[in-house]
Amino acid sequence: MNVGKVSKRVEQVFPFYVMDIMEKAKALEEQGENVVHMEVGEPDFPTPEPILKAAQGFLEKGDVHYTKAQGLPALRKKIARYYRDEYNVDLSPERIFITPGASGALTVALASLIDAGDEVLTCDPGYPCNNNIVTLFGGQPTSINVGEEHGFQLTGQLIAQAWSKATRGVMMASPSNPTGATVNFDQLQNIVQTITEREGFLISDEIYHGLVYGQRAISALEISDDVFVLNSFSKFFGMTGWRLGWLVVPEYAISAANRLMQNLYISAPTPSQYAALAAFDEDTRVILNQRRDEFEQRRDRLYEGLESLGFVMMAKPQGAFYIYADCRLFTDDSYAFALELLEKAGVATTPGKDFGSSEPARYLRFAYTTSIERIEEGLKRIKTFLAERGS
Amino acid sequence: MNVGKVSKRVEQVFPFYVMDIMEKAKALEEQGENVVHMEVGEPDFPTPEPILKAAQGFLEKGDVHYTKAQGLPALRKKIARYYRDEYNVDLSPERIFITPGASGALTVALASLIDAGDEVLTCDPGYPCNNNIVTLFGGQPTSINVGEEHGFQLTGQLIAQAWSKATRGVMMASPSNPTGATVNFDQLQNIVQTITEREGFLISDEIYHGLVYGQRAISALEISDDVFVLNSFSKFFGMTGWRLGWLVVPEYAISAANRLMQNLYISAPTPSQYAALAAFDEDTRVILNQRRDEFEQRRDRLYEGLESLGFVMMAKPQGAFYIYADCRLFTDDSYAFALELLEKAGVATTPGKDFGSSEPARYLRFAYTTSIERIEEGLKRIKTFLAERGS
Description:
Two copies of one chain form a homodimer. By secondary structure, the first copy, chain A, is α/β, with parallel strands linked by helices.
């Protein structure tokens, strides 16, 4: 009964190529094949026991009503305290919004900031939803090539070069998805300063904080109060399916973020918010630190393994749970290579073209969201595959 | 570090006036006052026991991971079957998306359909987020006055009169918020036909289905496959805080909705989806039907009570849990009157101006989301207040 056409807006939102890989992997498994999954950007661990218990305790009462649009005051207080403890940052809970995943935080931040035609600088390679959500709100994402020569991270200089009259701000992530690359304090300070001089905004995606190895992650809030910071209970806190994240906004955006929360979400899911009250407890932290150590071991094993197989490796990534491996010695089309790896070796990975358009065909993203045993098995399979392939 | 300004977009998103009422009510309660809450658009009942149990059973395993972006296949199958049982509509689960509340369904539907400058016809009075979300996506909401003379519902004729060159489609709700007014089959068919002739879209908000008294609610899917239908687990199923709803889309929008779900939400909350698997069980239905009967009794008591106090009443609303009462005999400013009612009588209501701009100052919305005893108490307080006020 209507024109039968979707919006032009949504036609610019591209599907994730990894979905093809996942579907094919599922089909193989239904035929009885065994697949090593290194395509999934989701920790394999269950929800930590104390968080589960907090949820179960809350559900016993059965009163699962809306919370305030901004989120439970008790949870916002705990997050504020977390910033004090982890980053030595003094943060008012009034600036913290509990969102449905970091996805919700991203949406609220962008809707607060951009108007039609506004340009937003993003990173390539980077999280694909960034560009898509900018597009959904009528903005113009312009990707900065932050390839190998830049250590896969943004710099003030790159921002200065890319800045145009239409530019309103910058989105970045440290650690980055898909590379795990991080910025240090001086680099982040330089980024913030470059943006400040141009009166732009910074949206700093810090969802992989906590999963950083052998160093400490720097929050943009250590450098300025006037930044938007996204974080999530999904990655370090192991709560993916609960769909819970948070957004820190500058003072001037509190009212806007509140109105957006009311209109777009009413509130974040209540059981998840009560569950997350236990996320900062000491016994939870013990579990989370063990998991972080496990991730670090996996990273070391996978990095070493891929290197010895002939992948061209970037510097060892300091965070997240990804290795972005250059497969140029095997192929000039990493998407075709990913399909081949899946079909012939039973190893699922994510092709580079999910993360941008600057040389994506050279790269595969391996996620170490599976056990050391499965990583070993995966490496063995790739070795056999490469030997038979004779490349 | 930035221009310190929010987007023009978000400046057009207005706060809900009821938030002022709720804040003032909270302040009164903190001073020890007792407030009768008739402002809240949320059922007062706890989550039905079988739904809670399903959630608890799921959480025992602890594996709370993402679901498919479209939602659990088992839940989508149950919803499809619900359409067969309740509406005699044959619906493929492929057309059903599980969303974070009906808010998520609304966002996905509008982002799928409108581009900048597209006009969308909405109802006044109506759900305020409709206009706001259209605005957020750069669309132009144009409200149709569906006041008392139209029985507070849309008609094909009103649509035909309002249609302009820029119009892309129509949003409506039956039962309506804030009035509870419904459309019957012929009226809905007429609406659909009028839109079809103009090659527009219809977004039919059916979140109050199930809460309809003495008749059956008609779904737009009974009339056409080419409509967007929103529904929710919040109202009839009593699951507000779980943030779960669904969206039915026409075939042509399946791919778009999928991409939007991936980018905007990843997936709806997993514990809520598993909980909702029990929402269609027979033992849940027994509880839900009892609650619906309780709502019907409350409606009757409140309607009668307000009428006897001198409010000018519309025809008795057939659904939802609201009465939209005309207080023109007491005031020409219902917002000021709502504040007075709260401060002097301890009764919280929602002022008409939250629902549009056509004569909002005449109306107050009373929600019967509180017990018969509290409704009686509220009516008594209003009576005393009016007597003392001498109006």
